[in-house]
């Protein structure tokens, strides 16, 4: 990862850490303590955190105590829920882990959910499903609600209902002054705007309230095509996807699958093309007709499109669930032409030996391209497509994978659009690279909010903006 590491700072005195332990209900672990590594372990094991202190928060009061402790000792603050999105080591920081904060409350009459900071989407989907409701989850229900949502939240239901951040109604968060705030469009419109899309730049969110949706029918899944048919499948995809209604979402990925026994034999050790599809509308019979034009574009090795309960939405993308080391980066695309597909095939098609696990093209547009009822700082609204690459950061490939991944995205340069989806931005060159996710006017507005609520850049972990430096 190329974001600069936080320089190691003097550790706080043991007596101060002991005092913090008396104040916090959850565990407090300092550098050198047994159990620290397990407490701060990431899902993306390419990043290893070495904080000065880790606070395992069990409630908002623990987060308040952690932030006040950090500012008192001149330490930066980072936060981690599930560990899916780390981009750099929180070295020398106070790292607040929120995985123990598991409160969930569904209000079926208001069609809302309130979740605490450590809740994963699987828990929300299970709680909402008995009421005929669904939340705007991402491609994996194993991901935390808060980080995903505040980074924009671009998931398979987005073309129908919009970015998940736009469905947020209320934010409970701890800001750099150590105060617990309830932020709404009425109470603090600028901060409410900025946090929904600006993610962790402005404080630690301890709870969210957001809308749920009633969907008469969910029909989806995926089709795995033989790799040799990649050209015909991808070229068909680029003309077929734009014909879909907003109730349908789709993406296509070239997958290089390892020869592992848990994979079905047709996919084991193969390079395949994975078509993902979800219909969220009123007519389940329409889904089969919508996807039918793609079935004859290549040999289908495995898969199917079928009715899905909300708790089975993972069947669309089939993301891995076990921790692994990975490098990732995404860009936006202004168009997906015949030449775009050809360039992608030359750079990363099945016939090319590249150390990448996945190269994906995802359709955006629909409600994702429109602002929500309360405007938010969600980036990338204007682009109709995104491209995303992931590679394994295993010994021998740690330098090769980023180089190859960037090379694949560079091959798409003629069709790259300005900006980025924050949750998919991946590896960037410092804070200026993060700021480039937005246009200049939006970026300046975000920096103004950052300077107002966090003038000392206390929250500098991950993809946080840096207000003090202006970048």
UniProtKB/TrEMBL annotation:
Keyword Nucleus: no
Classification via Gene3D superfamilies: 3.30.465.10, 3.40.462.20, Uridine Diphospho-n-acetylenolpyruvylglucosamine Reductase, domain 2
Keywords: FAD, Flavoprotein, Oxidoreductase
Source taxon at top rank: Bacteria
InterPro entries reported in the protein's UniProt record: FAD-bd_PCMH, FAD-bd_PCMH-like_sf, FAD-bd_PCMH_sub1, FAD-bd_PCMH_sub2, FAD-linked_Oxidoreductase, Oxid_FAD_bind_N, Oxy_OxRdtase_FAD_BS
UniProt key word Flavoprotein: yes
Cofactor dependence: FAD
Location of the FAD-binding PCMH-type domain: 47-215
GO molecular-function term, one example from the UniProt record: oxidoreductase activity
Family according to the record: Belongs to the oxygen-dependent FAD-linked oxidoreductase family.
PANTHER family with a match to the protein in the record: BINDING OXIDOREDUCTASE, PUTATIVE (AFU_ORTHOLOGUE AFUA_1G17690)-RELATED, FAD-BINDING PCMH-TYPE DOMAIN-CONTAINING PROTEIN
Protein name: FAD/FMN-containing dehydrogenase
Organism: Geodermatophilus nigrescens
């Amino acid at each position: 990862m190329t974001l600069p590491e936080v320089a190691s700072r003097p550790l706080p005195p043991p007596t101060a850490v002991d005092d913090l332990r008396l104040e916090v209900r959850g565990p407090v672990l300092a550098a050198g303590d047994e159990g620290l590594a397990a407490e701060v372990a990431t899902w993306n094991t390419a990043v290893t955190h070495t904080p000065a202190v880790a606070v395992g928060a069990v409630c908002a009061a623990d987060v308040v105590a952690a932030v006040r402790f950090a500012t008192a000792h001149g330490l930066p603050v980072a936060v981690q829920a599930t560990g899916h999105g780390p981009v750099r080591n929180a070295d020398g920081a106070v790292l607040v882990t929120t995985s123990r904060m598991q409160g969930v409350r569904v209000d079926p009459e208001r069609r809302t959910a309130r979740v605490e900071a450590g809740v994963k989407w699987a828990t929300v989907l299970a709680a909402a499903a008995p009421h005929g409701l669904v939340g705007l989850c991402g491609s994996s229900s194993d991901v935390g609600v808060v980080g995903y949502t505040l980074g924009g939240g671009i998931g398979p239901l987005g073309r129908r209902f919009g970015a998940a951040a736009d469905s947020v109604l209320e934010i409970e968060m701890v800001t750099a002054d150590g105060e617990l705030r309830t932020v709404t469009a009425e109470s603090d419109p600028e901060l409410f705007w900025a946090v929904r899309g600006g993610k962790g730049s402005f404080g630690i969110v301890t709870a969210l309230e957001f809308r749920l949706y009633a969907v008469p029918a969910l029909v989806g899944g995926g089709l795995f095509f033989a790799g040799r048919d990649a050209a015909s499948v991808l070229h068909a995809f680029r003309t077929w996807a734009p014909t879909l209604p907003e109730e349908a979402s789709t993406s296509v990925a070239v997958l290089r699958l390892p020869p592992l026994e848990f994979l079905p034999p047709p996919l084991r050790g193969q390079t395949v093309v994975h078509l993902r599809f979800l219909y969220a509308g009123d007519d389940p019979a329409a889904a089969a007709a919508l996807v039918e034009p793609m079935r004859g574009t290549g040999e289908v090795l495995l898969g199917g499109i079928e009715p899905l309960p909300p708790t089975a939405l993972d069947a669309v993308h089939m993301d891995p669930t076990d921790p692994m080391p990975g490098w990732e980066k995404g860009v936006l695309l202004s168009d997906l032409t015949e030449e775009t597909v050809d360039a992608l095939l030359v750079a990363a098609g099945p016939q090319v030996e590249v150390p990448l696990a996945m190269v994906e093209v995802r359709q955006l547009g629909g409600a994702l391209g429109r602002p929500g009822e309360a405007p938010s700082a969600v980036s990338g609204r204007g682009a109709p497509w995104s491209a995303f690459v992931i590679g394994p950061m295993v010994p021998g490939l740690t330098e090769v994978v980023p180089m190859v991944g960037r090379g694949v995205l560079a091959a798409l340069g003629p069709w790259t659009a300005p900006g980025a989806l924050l949750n998919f931005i991946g590896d960037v060159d410092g804070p200026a690279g993060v700021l480039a996710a937005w246009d200049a006017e939006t970026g300046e507005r975000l920096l103004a909010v950052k300077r107002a609520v966090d003038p000392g850049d206390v929250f500098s972990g991950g993809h946080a903006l840096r207000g003090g430096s202006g970048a």
